[in-house]
Write a structure and sequence with these properties.
14% of the residues lie in helices and 52% in strands. It is built from 2 helices and 12 strands, in the order H-E-E-E-H-E-E-E-E-E-E-E-E-E. The protein has a 12-stranded antiparallel β-sheet with strand order 3-2-1-12-11-10-9-8-7-6-5-4, covered by helices on one side.
């Protein structure tokens, strides 16, 4: 898990230290290589014991095509794999959070590291420790969320690739917790890219706990 692209702003005065710290963390985060043309894979989805097979083609975050004979799971899988493509897609720091004014919170001693404020439309702020993004906070319309990044693998390219994280969703009006999702990912190296091999999501919503898994197999690069 890592940063989604932010919209830039000119408010405030940019902090060179914050920019350097975030750039280092950005450059240590694994992405698909520049020029990546996408992949296809077979899918197996298990939603609380209900199994459905299909396949997926991913060419970009905007080009995710899924074949699956279940309308509800089709929508869920499309959204889930689309977000994987958004987070993993190739881009530069300047195309992402580097477009925004960045400032550093002063006087902190937090277990997850220092806070960097990204002065964007999403009111984002991250925590960074040891050149790694450890927490992401955003507000998107009626949704406010915090992502705690708990575990990462180190790729062949010496980049961090998130393997476990938890998302906490809050009501922006009263701050109450509305949902929690726990993500566990594995990956497989195909050519020069680390592609998704599995994703498990455990979610708590409206008094119930649901578990869904996505298994990718037979990957083929374009």
């Amino acid at each position: 898990m890592e940063m989604c692209q932010s919209q830039g702003t000119t408010e405030g005065q940019d902090d060179p230290q914050a920019r350097e710290w975030l750039r280092r963390a950005f450059e240590k985060t694994a992405r698909w290589p520049a020029g990546f043309k996408g992949f296809t894979a077979d899918l197996m989805i298990n939603a609380d014991g209900k199994e459905v097979k299909g396949n997926v083609t991913v060419k970009s975050p905007q080009e995710v095509v899924i074949s699956l004979d279940d309308p509800d799971l089709h929508k869920w899988a499309s959204n889930t794999i689309g977000m994987i493509a958004v987070h993993r897609g190739p881009r530069t720091f300047e195309q992402s959070d580097g477009k925004s004014v960045l400032t550093l919170e002063q006087g902190e001693s937090h277990p997850l590291g220092r806070t960097i404020h990204i002065h964007d439309a999403l009111k984002s702020h991250y925590r960074i420790k040891d050149n790694r993004i450890t927490q992401i906070n955003r507000t998107m319309g009626p949704m406010k969320f915090t992502i705690n990044i708990e575990d990462s693998a180190v790729t062949q390219d010496d980049k961090y690739l998130t393997t476990r994280y938890t998302v906490y969703y809050f009501n922006p009006q009263d701050g109450k917790l509305t949902n929690v999702e726990s993500f566990s990912d594995t990956h497989v190296r195909v050519g020069q890219a680390d592609l998704p091999a599995s994703r498990r999501i455990i979610s708590a919503d409206n008094g119930a706990v649901a578990v869904k898994t996505l298994l990718f197999s037979n990957h083929r690069l374009f």
